[in-house]
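Lecture notes, continued. The same structure-token format from the folding unit now serves as the input rather than the output. Read the line below as a description of shape only.
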């Protein structure tokens, strides 16, 4: 009898591209019965914390906070160069430098929207501008409309926001990914496929094999994946879909590798140094 695996992924094109093979029944499931659910990244993060999934795409910020119970699989991650969240506004703004510990917090405080408290976008804002403003949270798709409506001063945008903000009449204030790269010269880790550490080693190996096979299937059958991506991102045109895939599906998606693992450890260490990841939290383990 096959073992049921509750798998959660986001509706973002990079995930629906990578998991098209599994969604369409095109790859061997190694005796596993995948029940796949697609939802927003912050919903995935929160439900991972509640134990709703066996395996799910989650932000690395969430992974650092849940590392006692979850590890990351070697395949399926989103990280790279030029992939970071972008800080947007309706008109040019220069963010003040982060004050020293002996300096007062800057005033006035701008209103800032981030795409979920456990997202890596929020972690990066807190690392680089945490004393400038404590962010409020919104669904990622609501941030650019909130900027246009004047409901926030700054928006930390992810996913297709990187490609479409100019169409909204918005301007780039800061590329947080570029800020990360300037400080570290490393690829930026955004999110990965997180799995329960309590799953048997054999089950984890089979899940990893399925994830890798699905990614490879998508890379070998690109045109076939388009229908799946469109189904979950109907507001995006094909050019934006493929730009998204081209940016977020790369060598580190197939395998984290040494560079990906180093970058992940460095981001975790930065979070710990600023008190954003508890010192008592176990290090995030790459499973399998």
């Amino acid at each position: 009898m096959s073992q049921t695996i509750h798998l959660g992924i986001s509706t973002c094109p990079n995930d629906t591209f990578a998991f098209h093979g599994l969604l369409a029944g095109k790859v061997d499931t190694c005796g596993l019965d995948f029940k796949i659910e697609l939802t927003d990244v912050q919903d995935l993060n929160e439900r991972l914390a509640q134990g709703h999934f066996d395996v799910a795409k989650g932000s690395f910020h969430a992974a650092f906070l849940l590392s006692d119970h979850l590890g990351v699989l070697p395949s399926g991650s989103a990280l790279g160069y030029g992939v970071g969240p972008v800080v947007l506004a309706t008109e040019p703004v220069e963010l003040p430098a982060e004050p020293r510990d002996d300096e007062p917090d800057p005033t006035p405080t701008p209103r800032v929207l981030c795409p979920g408290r456990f997202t890596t976008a929020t972690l990066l804002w807190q690392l680089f501008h945490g004393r400038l403003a404590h962010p409020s949270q919104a669904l990622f798709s609501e941030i650019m409309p909130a900027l246009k409506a004047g409901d926030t001063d700054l928006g930390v945008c992810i996913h297709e926001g990187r490609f479409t903000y100019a169409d909204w009449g918005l301007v780039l204030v800061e590329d947080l990914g570029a800020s990360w790269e300037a400080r570290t010269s490393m690829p930026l880790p955004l999110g990965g496929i997180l799995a329960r550490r309590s799953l048997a080693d054999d089950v984890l190996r089979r899940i990893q094999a399925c994830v890798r096979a699905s990614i490879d299937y998508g890379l070998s059958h690109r045109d076939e994946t388009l229908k799946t991506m469109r189904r979950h991102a109907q507001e995006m045109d094909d050019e934006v879909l493929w730009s998204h895939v081209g940016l977020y599906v790369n060598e580190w998606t197939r395998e984290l590798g040494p560079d990906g693992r180093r970058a992940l450890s460095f981001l975790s260490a930065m979070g710990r140094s600023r008190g954003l990841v508890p010192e008592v939290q176990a290090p995030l383990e790459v499973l399998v």
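Point for the exam: The radius of gyration is 19 Å.
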